[in-house]
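Run log, item B.
One chain of 305 residues. Sequence copied directly from the ordering sheet:
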Amino acid sequence: MRSLKQQVLFLFISTVLCNYGSLQRGLITSGPCTFPLPHSANFSVFCQIPYHKTSYVCDPGGILSRTEVEMLQTTAIKLNMTSCFCSKFENCQPGIRIAVVLLPFVSWNSIRECDPTYTSSSISTSTILYAQLLSLRWQEHCDADVIFVYIQSWQPERLRTPLLIPLFGNQWPHLRRFSIPIVTSARETTLTSLENAMSHASRLIHVDLSPAHAAIPRWALAFGGIMLSVVVAAMYVANCISEKMGQRRQKSLVPKRGNEKFRAGFGGGVMMNSSGSQKKKSVMMFRTFSKNNHNNNNNNNNNRL
């Protein structure tokens, strides 16, 4: 009886280990170009969607527990985020369409399967490329606004540095500059890192959709152009008027030539009259002086006689 129980237990453990080994090998060999498609039969099982009961979470390695996925779902509802796989699992709902992919490890060989010429060994560049290739593969089935790709480590170097990249979709090309890998802290859990990344992405999208960034109506542009033309015309007219008034002031300050001649002639005549009178006075004084001298001389002569 014991041998039968031991055999059953051995078969159970072997089955679990075999499934786990096949899953791990599948993760290593499943690159972004060979990742299961959302419409394929093994996609739900591969992503453990029946276990997590959340359509936008693909967690083949079981990084998150069911409770953590429920907490993540609560955060997504608060941020008005929905699944991008609405065409397969549920009806499309208004909101920010997302997908969350969690991978225990990824290899550079999986990227080289898509691009044999890829030789970069940069973790940051490889993470971005992996997310872009996966988004391109899912494009027809998952038109996501943001895809969150979480990678715990890279193989075969076994670099245990968790990276999280929020990859914005084609409808947000100006937000692609924020699609950079985030090195998660060792103190943060995977759930906390995902919630922070989702909150940051939601803020970026809502700021972009705010009225300050909305498109300006055409009538407002036309009205603004007309008002600008009126202001320019008014400034031109005011400038012309000020120039003419300045010219008139300058003309009024300059004396006329006739007045100048009159002033010069009047001044010259006064000077000539004054000089003539002075000459007459001097002549009369000279005559009086000479006459007095003549009389004095006559008197002296008479006295001598």
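Observations after the first pass:
- Strands lie at 57-58, 81-83, 96-107, 146-155, 163-168, 182-183.
- The mean pLDDT is 75.
Flagged for discussion on Thursday.
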